[in-house]
Design goal:
- With about 500 residues, this protein is mostly helical.
- It has a single domain, classed as Sodium/glucose cotransporter (Up-down Bundle).
- Helix 1 crosses helix 8.
């Protein structure tokens, strides 16, 4: 059953990739699907790029173990802040200004919005460097589940996932990714609900499982009785940092923001906001909720020997063969959708913002698409090799890799990008200040972590701090640095003042 489901699943993915080749003949089609992607595809592409094996296996297991049922707050934050507010605050303005500036990537947006080639190159380098560790982290959780379900070697899992993702992304580009994301998203919705039900039933149902969780105590964490079944858990402050990183972080991640570039129309934004939020509530909320019951399986888990990433696979190991098959497809869907989104963002950034603008000018559309396809293969290969190296290195936890990557990119980009959509006063210097601070903080956290204050030694906490600090750095630095070119800024914001005719169902007439 497990093998049959996987064969059918892989065949569908590849088939869609080949079918969508006709949409991927030019840069706009390959990277953005011609900016004509509807609400369901966009919302599911956003959600499936958001949640991967990093969340399902790494974060759900680690934070469920640390905070108990209160870890569900991370999923709620992902839905309300990472989805609802992100779509509401960024979606519409991003779509309008990115089209007006004719930008297909975040570095290209910065370059045209601020008239700075250096800013565009700097953003491209940051994405190139920090996208890869996040990409590498996707293989870890997936490979652990494959090992549990099939007893397959970790390296084989990495190679198979890399090859299959490369085939359908290279063939069909963004449109193939979006359609596959929709299918993968449906699998994730059904899968997470079924898995939660099965795991709780194995412990006597929800009330019995919650009662069992309330009886667990760990004096190294807290002495309060029933703390792991409480509303805020044993460590609300550190839980807040998790919520900030995993929720607010999406506002500054290139592969997430790029979804807004491709939205078809106003109605797609409105519907997409609702669909994306509901998707996040079920998938993210469900993942962290499931992880909160991890301590019920403490007699089967050796954290010191196998790490936090072994918690979720251990919880699922006792399920039926059919349920394990569903779990494998669930996590495979989550990981491959995120991987495809990351490599498209990386390859388009490198091709459009570095190679075309600096090394090989006057590249034809066909040649740019060819270069992007080649770079997709290169990025996937590099991330696969890093995943193999990481498997035997000191970076044992998925959360560490994701925390460093998210913290650096979102810390660098979130504030400059968001403010530049709304304010004419943002300066180029403030963007550089935020870029440097976010990257420097996360690099230092990676290299000299013991020297950091205790609360910032965690990559999660440092990443959250980088994002919040950026929201202060940009306006403050903008006050004391030369104002941007008025004509350049006025031209960028002119897109919001264009008159457009809409049905009265959208806006009431003057009379």
């Amino acid at each position: 059953m497990k093998i049959a489901l996987l064969v059918v699943y892989f065949a569908v993915l590849i088939g869609i990739g080949l079918y969508c080749r006709r949409h991927a003949t030019d840069v706009d089609g390959f990277v953005l699907g011609g900016r004509s992607v509807g609400p369901w595809l966009t919302a599911f592409a956003y959600g499936t790029s958001y949640f991967s094996a990093v969340v399902f296996v790494g974060y759900a297991g680690q934070f469920g173990w640390k905070y108990g049922i209160a870890a569900t707050w991370a999923g709620i934050g992902n839905a309300l802040i990472g989805s609802l507010m992100a779509w509401f605050i960024l979606g519409r303005r991003t779509r309008i200004m990115s089209q007006h500036l004719d930008s297909a990537t975040m570095p290209q947006f910065f370059g045209k919005r601020f008239g700075s080639k250096a800013l565009k190159i700097g953003a491209s380098i940051i994405i190139f460097i920090f996208m890869i560790p996040y990409t590498a982290s996707l293989y870890n959780g997936l490979s652990r589940l494959f090992g549990m379900a099939f007893g397959i070697n970790y390296l084989i899992c990495i190679i198979v996932m890399a090859i299959l993702t490369a085939i359908y992304v290279v063939a069909g580009g963004y449109m193939a990714t979006a359609i596959n994301d929709f299918i993968q998203g449906m699998v994730m919705l059904v899968g997470i609900c079924a898995v939660i039900y099965a795991v709780l039933e194995s412990k006597g149902g929800f009330m019995s499982a919650l009662d069992g969780l309330a009886r667990i105590s760990d004096e190294t964490v807290a002495t309060t009785p029933g703390i792991f079944a409480s509303f805020f858990g044993p460590d609300p402050l550190n839980l807040l940092f998790v919520v900030i990183l995993t929720s607010l972080g999406t506002w500054g991640l290139p592969q997430m923001v790029q979804k807004f570039y491709a939205i078809k129309n106003e109605q797609a934004i409105q519907k997409g906001t609702i669909i994306s939020t509901a998707f996040a509530f079920i998938v993210a909320g469900g993942c962290y909720f499931l992880g909160g019951f991890g301590r019920l399986f403490s007699d089967q888990i050796d954290i010191k020997a196998f790490g936090f990433d072994s918690i979720i696979p251990t919880m699922l190991s006792g399920l039926s063969s059919g349920m394990i098959a569903l779990v494998v497809i669930l996590v495979l869907s989550a990981s491959m959708s995120t991987l495809s989104s990351l490599v498209i963002a990386s390859s388009s950034t490198l091709t459009i913002d570095l190679i075309r603008e600096n090394l090989v000018k006057n590249m034809s559309q066909a040649r740019q698409v060819l270069v992007m396809r080649i770079l997709i293969v290169v990025f996937i290969a590099i991330s696969a090799v890093l995943a193999m190296i990481q498997y035997s290195s000191s970076v044992n936890f998925i959360a560490q890799l994701m925390g460093i990557s998210w913290g650096a990119m979102a810390g660098a980009f979130l504030a400059p990008f968001m403010y530049s959509l709304y304010s004419k006063k943002v300066t180029t210097a403030s963007c550089w200040a935020c870029f440097i601070f976010g990257v420097a903080l996360m690099t230092a956290n990676m290299l000299i972590r013991p020297e950091f204050p205790a609360i910032l030694q965690s990559p999660i906490n440092s990443g959250a701090f980088a994002m919040i600090a950026g929201l202060i750095i940009v306006p403050v630095v903008s006050l004391f640095t030369p104002a941007p070119d008025k004509d350049l800024v006025d031209d960028a914001f002119a897109c919001y003042d264009k008159e457009t005719t809409v049905p009265q169902s959208v806006a009431l007439g003057k009379k």
